[in-house]
Amino acid sequence: MTEQNNETAEMYRERWVRLQKKMRDKGIDAFLATQNVDIYYLTGSMQTGYAFVPAAGDPALFVRRSVTRAMTEAKTDVVPLASLRTFASELSARYPALFAAGSVTLATEFDVLPVQAYMRLQSAFPGVTWTDGSLLIRETRMIKSAPELKLIRQAAAVIDTAFEAGVAALHEGMTELELMAAIEHSIRRKGHLGLMRMRGYNQELITGMVGAGAAAALPTYFDGPAGGEGLSAAAPQSSGRRRIGRGEPILIDIGCCIEGYVIDQTRTAVIGELPDDLASAYEQAEQVLRRTEERLKPGTICEDLYAAALKQVKEAGLSDHFMGYGSDQVKFLGHGIGLEIDELPVLAKSFTYPLEPGIVIAIEPKFTFPGRGVVGIENSYAITENGYEQLTRSREGLIRLP
Fold it and tell me: From the CB of residue 33, how many other CB atoms can be counted at a distance below 10 Å?
């Protein structure tokens, strides 16, 4: 086995060990991953099936389709699964000590598992006690390894190139969609998967939110401070066909997904000059980011960062515009990123996680002005032993174009 293979095997084993410790602490016998992203995280393959991780012992990937592909990808044993009806007997045969004990408690992802699929699992495993394992896997995934951070850095480098390509193409009269297309063309050529995965129910993300003027400030279902007109009511977010004008804020909130891992960043541009109050609000967004950076170190409590930002914008007289407007304001300052764009932790009230090395968060102070636009900035950071590493690389400051 090569050195790289050894490192990869150790990375997966470390994930299993951390998840297993969480299970034992809560008296859970095993974790059953049903969601594609969790299966990929635990096994290295995203083929259809289930990843089974016992509280002690080696995990296995039970695959419906494609077994052939899974065998070339997975870092666990791969077991062909004929049907859900035979799953319980196959598990019992592979883990006899676990199922011989009688009462078995299995955890799975109640946050993303459809009710119908859950009911089928209940029928297939009579006598098993099911419990919510959503936090088990999400908290395990919250801490990134060196290989994961490397991929997020690669995504950051790609999005920086794409951002500059977008700025170079930006001109008065072009549509938001044309600007987004210029960005997407660049990142797709450099390995962007073409999607940004989200865990939230009924939440979707394309490549980000590129919008200008009043269109960017349009509220929508998406859980973020800027909505966007979108192309129709079937996709009511991000870029539309509105033409970009002079003197209005252009919000370029974009991401990139390399080998499953995402980056998230926002920059604000303008053709000409912004009105004084919007320019001042942009400066305040940067000040919130700088003040937050000062506290990015192990031990800082997530909700404290949000509370400090709220206090800062209140003192600046901008509370009504912070992270949305009116009833459409969102109640957070930042969020974890990784395989999904909405990972733990969240910088919001009641999130009492202390920052620790390996956490990766996107921090996005923004101000929304209905009928006028959105201004703000967003960077992604990895928490280190002594502070943080800024992962996003694109130039900061208000981007002024002639």
Answer: 26
